[in-house]
Amino acid sequence: MQKACTPCGTDFEITQSDKAFYDQISVPSPRCCPDCRLMRRLNERNTLTLYKRKCDLTGVEVISPYHKEHQFPVYSPDAWWSDDWDPMYYGRDFDSSRPFFEQFAELLNVVPHQGQFVIGGTMQNSNYVNCAGYLKNCYLIAEADYNEDCYYGNRLFHNTTLVDCSNCYEDELCYECIDCLQCHSLKFSEYCQTCSDSLFLKNCIGCKNCIGCINQRQKQFMIFNKQLTKNEYNKRLDEMNLNTNEGIEKARKKADEFFLTQPQKPLQNEHNQNCTGNHLYDSKNSFMCFDCKDLEDCKYCARVFSVKTSMDYTAWGDKSELMYQCAC
Ligand SMILES: [Zn+2]
Asked: From the CA of 19, how far away is ligand 1's center (Å)?
């Protein structure tokens, strides 16, 4: 069935399987197109623009996605998760003679909000983070779960000792890496899996002791896609002075130039079955999903992992099911 989006007028399709999902969770079919629905969800999210403010319950200084000008009270995570206040105190009767959303807005403007989106009781020494859970000794990371000793990054899951990384899963001792999975001692690399002790890799799997390589599988002692012996590799490694900023920048420039001459993957999708989207991994029967992992029967999802049978879900996941138009 074709529909015209109420806000923007664009035609969009509601398929039989979409309709089956809406019936399953007992909601009417949407009046907005997928893009407008995504914009509405993103309007509710503020992951990285954080303000200093005081907790309205304890007075301690916190960082928060909520500016102090917001009307509602904001509590530090410790205060918000504590029993020092009673959310039932704000309960009120519903007035059926007034619109629901008008009354919901009134409620939202008096109920205390959590100062940072974190899972209470799962955080150790990780005060300066947002949209996170199960962290130990982490600093300035967001959209991150199950990490230890990670600093300056976002979308990090199950990692140990990462600095300046994004979209990384199950990595250890990595620096300036993007979209990497199960790598160890990897630096300045992107789109890599199970690579180790290497620098400046792009779209490589299972490579070790490699520098400036692209599109390689299970290689060792390779520099700029050229196979060397162990001795040749170690000699070149010494000459490249990669323990200095000058050496790093020279190698980065050469890798960037070399990569431009090589074939590039059109999409970063791996281990998917019957899926469309980009940066999508280990998923099945999922469509128009981006920056996601471990999805099944999902549509229009972004930045979620471990989700089943959901539509229009942006950020988080972690064993969620039957989610619809939600943004964490
Ligand atoms: Zn629209």
From this structure: 18
